[in-house]
Write a structure and sequence with these properties.
Layout (H helix, E strand, L loop, with lengths): L1 E3 L5 E6 L5 E5 L12 H21 L12 H12 L3 H7 L1 H8 L10 E15 L2 E5 L3 E6 L4 E3 L10 E6 L10 H23 L27
Antiparallel strand pairs: 1-2, 2-3, 4-5, 4-6, 4-8, 6-7
Helix pairs in contact: 2-5
Length: 225
């Protein structure tokens, strides 16, 4: 896959069908990670993200990118949410809202590194319809660094949306019934935003939104994915 970076330099990236990079050829940057500056590493990592994205576009039936890193997949989920009866949404997402406000009530463990807590929920959808909302899952670390997870794992990755956010502090007077659907929709749109930012590209105008999207993208942490 031939990709050009923000400086106009050419890169040749070879990868497997699951997106693992086998070879990344360029004559413009050091070949070893330890010889690159942080800025050079950011560019190299974003180029690989761009190459995976381009390969997924060229071979849409392949699983080069996981579904939640494909804008079209999230857009299909947004369409399903647009058909989601509000009464059902408010009932199905109440537990997730409660967990975002106070995740420690769902963790029977200690001592927890509270900054590590990520609150998850998985939504199964198909043909423009939300079919099921999972129980809340919590991903966290103890203060000794060990990682722990509660709740379900994805079962239908090509037909699921994964919501993953840290603990949120809602403003006084926040109205769950009137406002929480906007929080969820902003999270989905911000994930599309961050897919483009992760490649070092400007998102389409409609996805330049505020809000929590992906929790770790290139640029947040140099060389992270």
């Amino acid at each position: 896959m031939e990709v050009f970076d923000e400086r106009g330099n050419r890169h040749a990236v070879t990868m497997s069908w699951d997106g693992q990079v086998w070879e990344h050829g360029t004559g413009d940057y050091p070949h070893k990670r330890e010889d690159r500056t942080d800025e050079e590493q950011r560019i190299m990592t974003q180029v690989e993200a761009r190459a995976r994205f381009a390969a997924q576009q060229e071979f849409p039936d392949a699983d080069i990118l996981s579904p939640m890193w494909r804008p079209d997949h999230i857009k299909a989920g947004i369409e399903a949410f647009s058909n989601y009866p509000m009464e059902e949404f408010l009932n199905d997402f109440r537990e997730y809202y409660d967990a975002l406000r106070d995740p420690m009530q769902y963790i029977d463990d200690s001592p927890v590194n509270e900054e590590s807590i990520i609150i998850n929920v998985i939504v199964h959808f198909n043909d423009g319809e939300v079919l099921d909302v999972s129980d809340v899952g919590i991903h966290y670390k103890l203060t000794d660094g060990s990682e722990h997870r509660t709740g379900p794992l994805p079962s239908y990755p090509n037909k699921e949306l994964i919501f993953a956010m840290p603990e949120l502090e809602f403003a006084d007077g926040f109205d769950y019934e009137e406002e929480f659907a906007d929080v969820i929709m902003s999270h989905l749109m911000a994930q599309i935003r961050d897919i483009y930012l992760n490649m070092g590209e400007d998102p389409p105008a409609e996805y330049r939104v505020e809000g929590i999207g992906k929790l770790n993208i290139v640029g947040d942490g140099i060389g992270a994915t």
